[in-house]
Design a protein that fits this description.
- The complex is a heterotrimer of chains A (397), B (290) and C (86).
- By secondary structure, chain A is an alpha/beta fold.
- In chain A, strands 3-2-4-5-7-6-13 form a 7-stranded mixed sheet, sandwiched between helices. A 6-stranded mixed sheet of chain A has the order 10-12-11-14-15-16, with helices on both faces.
- In chain A, helix 1 packs across helix 2 and helix 1 runs parallel beside helix 6.
- Chain B is α/β, with parallel strands linked by helices.
- Chain B has 11 helices and 8 strands.
- The longest helix of chain B is centred in the C-terminal third of the chain and has 19 residues.
- The mean pLDDT of chain C is 97.
- Chain C is built from 2 helices and 4 strands.
- In chain C, strands 1-4 form a two-stranded antiparallel ribbon. Chain C has a two-stranded antiparallel ribbon with strand order 2-3.
- Chain C is elongated.
- Classes of the chains: A alpha/beta (397), B alpha/beta (290), C alpha+beta (86).
- Chains in contact: A-B, A-C, B-C.
- Chains A and B meet through strand 3, helix 3, helix 4 and strand 9 of A and strand 1, strand 2, helix 3 and helix 5 of B.
- Strand 9 of chain A pairs parallel with strand 2 of chain B.
Chain lengths: 397, 290, 86
């Protein structure tokens, strides 16, 4: 059922997955640490390995995503990849893509945003795009990032969804790491991912108008229908993961995944590569009798409200770990959103948030351990600090 | 013939509608049109209606050229290109101000698209604000004349020259006041492989402040005073110029429009007009119009 | 009406919007002066001047906004703008 392992760079695993998904138009602009993905795709193109595909070297991320608007409307399966400033530059177009219901898939090699300029990993770039109407999936390792690409196309292009998707992978940590990976097999992927056949396309034989303007009499309904698409995606993301498992024999969870969560008193929430570190710390803590578990959030948009309500109900304290901050609220996005989905329920569990790993700051195991210790205190004596940095260098301020 | 369907919301005497009609007649039905945000886009596509009879897409203000690139690439990738023409048409703001980067990228890459700039020399859709195409000393809502100003302080950006400098195989200036000529140039442009550029002068009744019946007449005056030189440039060389026999004084053009009215009443207006005449004189010499 | 996904619209549907009501002046056609050059039809921003088989024109008052370009550009003064009586 599963293929053979090859040691490749994370970027290569993703680029290879993109190739196997049979894209028709790829358009991208280089930005660290996304570059290796687009370089690998360029080499595939140069070697004639992606049939029926055009690769467009554009002059900016703004044009990268804009070309895909045109291409997707013609009926092409489309792909781009970016990060950080590039993603922020795309911001205006991102709304346009989702509003026009174009199922573009894009890898985000997550990176901090400027200023100060910083090329290392955190999640501020993609989290800052949370309301653009794109689905957002976060991968834990290169294998998941690659496999998630195929899953993303499947969900995005579903006729009940027709929404774009970002596959988020931690910059450098996942994009530049060499690990054993099973590269997607063409035959299995063809079985898993049907061709893209949208209902409406730009075609002189059947002329349609795309991108009309809506006045107050219809605009609300367009927004409502986008949310309906997001609602429908909740189940489709789960199905895409299950079906992937059936064909490829690999599973990473659907909307969320859990680790040692069943009897956990302390339930940690995190996204991306830090999940691996957390699992190691949990293993150690469990040997010491600490009842700690993990919820890995794979889908940040749509946000898995019901799945989270279900999984937390027996916990004593919830702890969120965020590689991003909403300045002015002093919380990361997971913290805010996990809290918000517990309100108006009979769940009454304290939630504390930790900000860490910003701008690529390393997250050592002892930091996670310190966070678990603080969570224990909350169980004993309640919440004193709702949200704080876990790795602040006090001597610098 | 795929002209714009009637019922669109363009002003009476709208230059954009005329320009779109001429482009559509020239390119025929086997085409996909890309339109940036602007008057033409807004007036033709109030949901759930559309005045377009060809496949048409609007994305944003500044990305029409990039969207066109994507359309063309997708047609090729999917094996559907055939003879389908990919034509972007947008206003001066969407082309040579906010759309400058995207169009520059598309032309540098050599994408097989035709871009038609419908130049009415200001941001009309938002209420006649100055653009990079607004002519010297014109009054707009963001370049009004006053005790310290005769209006717009800068001459028009020479966009056709910039596009020719990209190595475009065909760049032509034209005017909606010469429809047959404009259609001939557009037809020629779409028939040439690679990125081709048409810059069409388009008098706007609302923004330039003249009677709705004078749209064509004003455009002719721009050409007859040599303020709007009409030429074709192939592979970098100017190959054809529309001669202007005995150019009229620029006053004939200026006095017909509200946006230049202040030049005839303000102290020092004569000198301001003389500077505009100098622009026309430069055009005559530079493009060999006489 | 039901919202289409992504707001896709059928072609030529602005015909539902009769802009003739905008008109203050209307074109009066002096057929005897017409030389059938077709300029009025070509120039009309509202595609409301239609050439017939015999090359004479008729005006579509459902959509004519009364801009007067046809009258202004007619080389033979075969079109005259007159006040619309409402």
């Amino acid at each position: 059922m599963t293929g053979k392992m090859t040691v490749v760079e994370g970027s290569y695993a993703v680029a290879h997955a993109v190739k196997i998904c049979r894209p028709n138009v790829i358009s991208a602009y280089p930005i660290t640490p996304q570059t290796h993905i687009v370089e690998d795709l360029s080499q595939f193109m140069a070697d004639g390995e992606i049939p029926n595909c055009e690769y467009i070297n554009v002059e900016s991320e703004f044009s990268a995503i804009s070309t895909l608007v045109g291409a997707s409307a013609v009926g092409a399966r489309t792909y781009s990849s970016t990060t950080s400033q590039g993603l922020e530059l795309m911001h205006e177009v991102l709304f346009n893509v989702s509003g026009m219901r174009l199922p573009i898939v894009m890898t985000v090699a997550n990176r901090a945003v400027s200023a100060p300029i910083n090329i290392w990993n955190d999640h501020q770039d993609s989290i800052s795009q949370r309301d653009t109407g794109w689905m957002q999936l976060y991968a834990e390792d290169p294998q998941e990032a690659a496999d998630m690409t195929a899953q993303a196309y499947r969900v995005a292009e579903d006729k009940d969804i027709m929404l774009p998707a970002m596959v988020c992978m931690d910059g450098f940590i996942l994009s530049h790491v060499y690990e054993p990976v099973i590269l997607l097999e063409q035959e299995l992927t063809d079985e898993y991912l049907p061709g893209f056949e949208p209902e409406h396309i730009l075609d002189p034989a059947k002329p349609k108008t795309f991108g009309a303007f809506a006045d107050p009499s219809t605009y609300t309904e367009f927004r409502y229908l986008q949310q309906k698409g997001m609602d429908a995606a909740l189940e489709k993301i789960e199905n895409a993961a299950d079906d992937f498992n059936k064909i490829f024999g690999r599973y990473y969870g659907g909307l969320i995944d859990t680790y040692e969560a069943e009897d956990a008193e302390i339930l940690l929430f995190a996204m991306g590569s830090v999940v691996g570190t957390i699992k190691d710390v949990i293993d150690r803590a469990r040997t010491e009798g600490v009842k700690v578990g993990l919820v890995k959030v794979r889908a940040f948009r749509p946000f898995p409200v019901e799945a989270i309500r279900k999984v937390v109900k027996d916990a004593s304290v919830i702890v969120t770990l965020d590689k991003n901050i909403s300045l002015g609220l002093n919380e990361g996005a997971l913290c805010t959103e996990v809290k918000s989905c517990l309100y108006n329920t009979d769940i009454n569990i304290p939630v504390i948030g930790f900000l860490l790993g910003h701008g690529g700051r390393d997250i050592p195991r002892r930091n996670i351990r310190m966070i678990i210790d603080k969570a224990k205190q909350v169980i004993r004596s309640g919440v004193t600090i709702e949200s704080e940095y876990a790795d602040l260098r006090g001597e610098l301020i | 013939m795929s002209r714009l369907a009637p019922g669109h919301r363009g002003c009476a005497g709208c230059c954009d509608a005329m320009a779109a009609n001429f482009v559509l007649e020239a390119i025929g039905d086997d085409a996909i049109v890309i339109n940036p945000t602007g008057c033409l886009e807004v007036m033709t596509t109030p949901y759930p209606e559309s005045a377009w009879e060809v496949p048409w897409i609007h994305s944003l203000f500044e990305n029409a050229a990039a969207v066109a690139t994507g359309v063309e690439a997708a047609l090729r990738a999917l094996g559907r290109k055939g003879d389908t023409k990919v034509v972007a048409m947008g206003g001066d703001g969407g082309t040579l101000d906010i759309g400058m980067q995207a169009i520059s990228g598309a032309f540098e890459r050599g994408d097989d698209i035709t871009y038609v700039c419908i130049d009415n020399e200001a941001y009309m859709n938002t209420g006649v604000q100055r653009s990079g195409a607004t002519p010297f000393n014109a009054s707009t809502t963001t370049s009004p004349p006053g005790s310290q100003s005769f209006g717009n302080p800068r001459p028009k950006k020479n966009m056709p020259a910039i596009m020719a400098a990209h190595g475009s195989p065909y760049v032509a200036t034209t005017s909606i006041s010469y429809p047959k000529e404009m259609m001939r140039k557009v037809k020629k442009a779409v028939g040439i492989e690679g990125p081709t550029y048409i810059h069409a002068h388009a008098p706007c009744t609302t923004g330039w402040r003249f009677d709705t019946s004078k749209t064509v007449e004003i455009g002719k005056l721009a050409v007859e005073t040599a303020l709007w030189p009409m030429y074709e440039q192939e592979e970098g060389e100017i190959t054809k110029v529309r001669k202007v026999k005995q150019p009229k004084p620029v006053e004939d053009y200026l006095k017909a429009q509200g946006r230049f009215k202040h030049l005839f009443t303000m102290e020092g207006g004569d000198e301001a007009i003389a500077k505009i005449q100098a622009i026309a004189d430069w055009n005559i010499k530079h493009y060999g119009l006489e | 009406m039901k919202i289409t996904i992504g707001g896709v619209v059928e072609p030529g549907t602005t015909r539902a919007n009769k802009t003739g009501g905008w008109r203050n002046f209307k074109p009066l056609y002096h057929k005897d002066k017409c030389i059938k050059c077709g300029l009025c039809s070509m120039l009309c921003p509202d595609s409301s001047v239609h050439e017939q088989e015999d090359k004479y024109v008729i005006f579509d008052f459902d959509f004519c906004k009364g801009c007067g370009i046809c009258a202004n550009e007619c080389p033979k003064d075969a079109i005259e703008m007159v006040l619309e009586e409402k």
